């Protein structure tokens, strides 16, 4: 099985690839992990990962700057039903629009907008940075075997903007940060995490292994 | 609920840990990657490398250290020391650092913080603030920014500078008291509190930790979001897990996820 991690100039993907390799190895899965900027390889992959760091608009521009990439993603994920995982801004790009500094178009796979986090407690710092527990709203294969809630495992977050999904059913998990902040969205064969599974130690490696086994 | 973070910091020179890490049986106690792996397994919330390599030629070694660490540790890594240009930041991020800390270059030219944040995003730009108390006793407390390991005064007020770099786009501030650094007398809590109260971004307390109560005080009295320490961990005085248990017992919210840590051997 081939897993493509989409490289569109948004930061270092080498360590993300290493996390996927380790998760696959520990789960006894035989996966080839490829970091690629080639839409043909993305189209040919069995599973697709879209990472992203920085600002929404920059990431969208970066994605558009690779000729054929958005088309390859859309074909594989929306029409081909390949399992897809967006990470951080890669997850935010699944939304309809991003409202960070300027308004930019997302992929519109998960209806909703990406907006500045506005905690109801003014003492809370922005960015939301560090380890937080997940509040699970519904079961999802990506969270199989992962304990959530106040006594559950933690995921690593660093972000100032978050996806506000139109359909509550698309939100699998939130975190509490002066109110509920979207942490994990999923619909059909698509999922996205606001946190960084590749930086989230035990929870992260488990979630990645779940993604590699996922048969939506 | 967001947890407070405990961050061990390693001083790295020419690709080697300056004082060696003695808390656990490492194959090579001077290899930062070995030390980083041990801290990762022990449940540290993040790692920090401070590069104090003097020569430009030896900088290449640091990139290799960062790369090997990022391949082995699935936790956030901040790297600082000698970061002067956008290209320095780019190289460290591409090597696998999650955040890059800027110190002297931000003091010399605060606009550099804006440039860096616009280029790479605030989430990966940390400004390291080294400050000394300059007010006399009886006066309202004030602190001044110092560079060059605390030797060079800048005339800049630390709290005003903190506010300025946060507005320019720093995503986090690493606040070190040069009065306390190396003393084991605890953080300068008034300094940390003054800066934390002045900015909306997270603040990491640094400089002076000698015991576990100092970590607690950094959060509770300094209002920091994270606490950084070096020698108490490297020399086996305390393990990461002891520190976290202590902080939890004091009522702080810490992450106590199961770890893969081998039993720590002191000494």
UniProtKB/TrEMBL annotation, chain A:
Pathway: Amino-acid biosynthesis; L-histidine biosynthesis; L-histidine from 5-phospho-alpha-D-ribose 1-diphosphate: step 5/9. Its main location: cytoplasm. The keyword Amino-acid biosynthesis applies. InterPro entries: Class_I_gatase-like, GATASE, Imidazole-glycPsynth_HisH. Pfam families: GATase. The keyword Lyase applies. GO terms for cellular component: cytoplasm. This is Imidazole glycerol phosphate synthase subunit HisH. It comes from Microvirga brassicacearum. The lineage of its organism: Bacteria, Pseudomonadati, Pseudomonadota, Alphaproteobacteria, Hyphomicrobiales. The gene is hisH.
From TrEMBL, chain B:
One of its GO terms (biological process) is L-histidine biosynthetic process. Pathway: Amino-acid biosynthesis; L-histidine biosynthesis; L-histidine from 5-phospho-alpha-D-ribose 1-diphosphate: step 5/9. One of its GO terms (molecular function) is imidazoleglycerol-phosphate synthase activity. It catalyses: 5-[(5-phospho-1-deoxy-D-ribulos-1-ylimino)methylamino]-1-(5-phospho-beta-D-ribosyl)imidazole-4-carboxamide + L-glutamine = D-erythro-1-(imidazol-4-yl)glycerol 3-phosphate + 5-amino-1-(5-phospho-beta-D-ribosyl)imidazole-4-carboxamide + L-glutamate + H(+). CDD domains: HisF (cd04731). It is found in: Cytoplasm. SUPFAM superfamilies: Ribulose-phoshate binding barrel. It is an enzyme of class 4 (lyase). Keywords: Amino-acid biosynthesis, Cytoplasm, Histidine biosynthesis, Lyase. Gene3D superfamilies: Aldolase class I. Pfam families: His_biosynth. The active site is at 11, 130. Its EC number is 4.3.2.10. GO terms for cellular component: cytoplasm. NCBIfam families: hisF. Belongs to the HisA/HisF family. IGPS catalyzes the conversion of PRFAR and glutamine to IGP, AICAR and glutamate. The HisF subunit catalyzes the cyclization activity that produces IGP and AICAR from PRFAR using the ammonia provided by the HisH subunit. Heterodimer of HisH and HisF. This is Imidazole glycerol phosphate synthase subunit HisF. It comes from Microvirga brassicacearum. The gene is hisF.
């Amino acid at each position: 099985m081939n897993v493509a991690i989409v490289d569109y100039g948004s930061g270092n993907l080498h360590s993300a690839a290493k996390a996927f390799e380790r998760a696959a190895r520990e789960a006894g899965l035989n996966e080839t992990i490829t970091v690629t900027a080639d839409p043909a390889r993305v189209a040919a992959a069995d599973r697709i990962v879209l990472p992203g760091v920085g600002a929404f608009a920059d990431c969208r521009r970066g994605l558009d700057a690779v000729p054929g990439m958005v088309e390859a993603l859309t074909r594989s994920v929306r029409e081909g039903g390949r399992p897809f995982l967006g990470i951080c801004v890669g997850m935010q790009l699944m939304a309809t629009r991003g409202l960070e500094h300027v308004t930019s178009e997302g992929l519109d796979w998960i209806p909703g907008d990406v907006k500045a986090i506005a905690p109801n407690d003014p003492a809370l710092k922005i960015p939301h940075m560090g380890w937080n527990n997940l509040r699970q709203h519904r079961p999802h294969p990506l969270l199989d075997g992962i304990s959530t809630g106040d006594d559950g495992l933690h995921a690593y977050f660093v972000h100032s903007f978050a996806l506000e999904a139109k359909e509550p059913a698309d939100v699998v998990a939130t975190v509490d940060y002066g109110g509920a902040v979207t942490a994990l969205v999923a619909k059909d064969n698509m999922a996205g995490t606001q946190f960084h599974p590749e930086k989230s130690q035990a929870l992260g490696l488990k979630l990645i292994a779940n993604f590699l086994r996922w048969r939506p | 609920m967001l947890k407070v973070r405990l961050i061990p910091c390693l001083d790295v020179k020419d690709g080697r840990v300056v004082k060696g890490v003695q808390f656990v049986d490492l194959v090579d106690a001077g290899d930062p990657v070995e030390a980083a792996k041990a801290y990762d397994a022990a449940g540290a919330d993040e790692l920090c490398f401070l590069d104090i390599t003097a020569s430009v030629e030896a900088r290449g070694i640091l990139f290799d250290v960062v790369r090997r660490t990022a391949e082995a540790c699935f936790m956030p890594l901040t790297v600082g020391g000698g970061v002067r240009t956008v290209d320095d930041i780019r190289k460290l991020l591409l090597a696998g650092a999650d955040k890059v800390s800027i110190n002297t270059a931000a003091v010399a030219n605060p606009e550099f913080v804006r440039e860096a944040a616009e280029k790479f995003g605030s989430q990966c730009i940390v400004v390291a603030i080294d400050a000394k108390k300059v007010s006399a006793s009886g006066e309202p407390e004030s602190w001044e920014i110092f560079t060059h390991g605390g030797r060079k005064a800048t005339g800049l007020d630390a709290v005003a500078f903190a506010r300025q770099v946060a507005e320019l786009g720093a995503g986090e501030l690493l606040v070190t008291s040069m009065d306390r650094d190396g003393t084991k007398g605890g953080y300068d809590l008034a300094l940390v509190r003054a800066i934390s109260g002045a900015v909306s971004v997270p603040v990491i307390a640094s400089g002076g930790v000698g015991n576990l109560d100092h970590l607690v005080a950094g959060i509770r009295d300094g209002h920091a979001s994270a606490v950084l320490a070096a020698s108490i961990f490297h020399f086996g005085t305390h393990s990461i897990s002891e520190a976290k248990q202590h902080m939890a017992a004091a009522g702080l919210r810490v992450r106590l996820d199961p770890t893969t840590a081998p039993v720590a051997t002191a000494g």
